[in-house]
Design goal:
The structure is a homodimer. With about 150 residues, chain A is an alpha+beta fold. The first copy, chain A, folds into 2 domains: about 1-40; about 40-135, K homology (KH) domain (GMP Synthetase, Chain A, domain 3), CATH 3.30.300.20. Chain A is built from 3 helices and 6 strands; from the N terminus they run βββαββααβ. Chain A has helices at about 40-60, 100-115, 120-125; strands at about 1-10, 15-20, 20-25, 70-80, 85-95, 130-135. The first copy, chain A, has a 3-stranded antiparallel sheet, with no helix packed on it. The longest helix of chain A is centred in the middle third of the chain and has 23 residues, at about 40-60. Chain A is elongated and about 50 Å long. The relative contact order of chain A is 0.15. At the A-B interface, strand 1, strand 2, strand 3, helix 1 and strand 4 of A face strand 1, strand 2, strand 3, helix 1 and strand 4 of B.
């Protein structure tokens, strides 16, 4: 069982505690918030990026495929009517490295999306999802410890 | 369109940027992480708490119902097989205040769950969800500015 708590901090702000880590949630000024932290709904996209990102780096490690860097972007298109949910989600994996094994990287991403990532499975119930993998051999000097 | 980015920081850690706010995501040591931040999946529960919490406080404000405090707990029961998603979610709203208008508070929570909260709508597709409201007239001296 996973448990989290969120305490109201006035106006639209909540302070969440998840496994000892704090996250301040807030809304934009136009709906009475002060933008002190992320809005709740985009956290779904953050959860998705983290879930599939961790799948991919751990699968690539098992496959002994080396990459220098991985950057994940997620765009979500909200529905027009209440309840407002993401009706389309687009994931972009930017993989950096030299002589990348594209076949295995594609396999790792596919395994995450189709089998392992429970956040993706959840969002897929309401959102049309697709993903793209972009490869780059640009040097990543500051993150050479990856 | 909502957009977020998450950059790999080595091992299982990712740094997400959502509307200028940073969130470090990480995994537990047993799967190669260092617990530097929340795990991705419980962020779904955080998003749910924030989404419904903001609905409830703004609905109560419109209804001119005063409360002193609101604490939301969310428990999620993961599925046994991959993909691991939340198959059951239990929300608890702890509402504090004097002479609380329980009927209107119940209505605000119901409107959030059944009509407004897009995170709830999304999770309901895969999870059996239920909620409970607990009332307390305990004084909340340190949060009297609510």
């Amino acid at each position: 069982m996973n448990e989290i708590k969120a305490n109201w901090k006035g106006n639209m702000s909540f302070e969440a505690n998840v496994d000892g880590h704090k996250i301040i949630l807030d809304a934009d000024a136009e709906v009475g918030g002060q933008n002190q932290g992320p809005k709740p709904k985009p956290l779904l996209l953050v959860a998705l990026a983290g879930c599939t990102g961790m799948d991919v780096v751990s699968l690539l490690k098992k496959m002994r495929v080396k990459i220098d860097d991985l950057q994940i972007s997620v765009a979500g298109e909200p529905s027009e009517e209440h309840p407002i949910y993401y009706k389309k989600v687009k994931l972009t994996y930017l993989v950096k490295g030299q002589d990348l094994d594209k076949e295995k990287i594609e396999k790792a991403v596919r395994l995450s999306q189709e089998r392992y990532c429970g956040v993706s499975y959840t969002l897929q119930q309401v959102a049309e999802m697709d993903y793209e993998i972009i490869y780059s051999n640009e040097e990543v000097p500051t993150q050479a410890t990856h």
